[in-house]
Amino acid sequence: MKAVLQRVTKASVSVADKITGTIDNGLVILLGVGHHDTESQASFLAEKIINLRIFEDENGKLNRSLLDVQGELLVISQFTLFGDCHKGRRPSFVNAAYPETAERLYEYFVQLTREKGIHTETGVFGAMMDVTLTNSGPVTLTLDTEELKPKHKNP
Fold first, then answer.
1. pLDDT tens-digit map of 54-109
2. Can you say whether the dihedral through the CA atoms of 35, 103, 81, 50 is positive or negative?
3. What confidence score (pLDDT) does residue 149 get?
4. Counting Cβ atoms within 10 Å, is residue 69 exposed (0-12), middle (13-18) or buried (19+)?
5. Mean per-residue pLDDT over the chain, rounded
6. Cis before 138 (ω within 30)
7. How many C-alpha atoms does 151 have within 13 Å on its Cβ side?
8. What is the C-alpha to C-alpha distance for residues 146 and 95, in angstroms, rounded to an integer?
9. What would the 3-class secondary structure string for 43-103 be?
10. What distance in Å separates the CA atoms of residue 22 and residue 73, rounded to the nearest whole number?
11. Is 79 noted as a catalytic residue in this protein?
């Protein structure tokens, strides 16, 4: 799974001019699901994101997590995160999961964040969406479960 996190003071998503999700202080997450992704990766990513210390403390240091600041999430499905632009001029999306798998894991990720007590809003899976946000910092990070795997040392 791949995620782009943007720390925001406010954000919203709309479909056909109808707002489907809105948050104040927290994170916008653009979430992409690949062919080989699993519930285990969704769980790992959700836990990682809600515990990342990317909010300032009283000294201006990034020492507080989404949980610490009682922040909110706006999670947007984004298969284009798996776009491969190495060849030609048109991205290839062969590494993105099929819609049925992607939607199931996207919904599972959202369920996990809600179970952790995070107010979580969403867009509409597979829809053309307009996302509006005010980036705070700006703080923008990318996470990829393939890159987050523990590194094994050679003996």
1. 999 999 999 999 999 999 999 999 999 999 999 999 999 999 999 999 999 999 99
2. negative
3. 64
4. middle
5. 94
6. yes
7. 3
8. 13
9. HHHHHHHHHCCCEECCCCCEEECCCCCCCEEEEEECHHHHCECCCCCCCECCCECCHHHHH
10. 9
11. yes
- 132 as an active site residue: the answer is no
Candidates 78, 120, 122, 145; catalytic one: 78
Q: Domain locations in the chain?
A: 2-142
Which residue is catalytic, options 9, 80, 140, 142? 80
Class for domain 2-142, per CATH? alpha beta
- Side-chain half-sphere of 137: how many Cα atoms within 13 Å? 17
Q: Which tops the pLDDT comparison, 152 or 68? A: 68
Residue 36, classed as helix, strand or coil, is coil
- Catalytic position from the list 79, 82, 120, 122: 79
pTM: 0.91
Contact between 49 and 27 under an 8 Å Cβ cutoff? The reply is yes
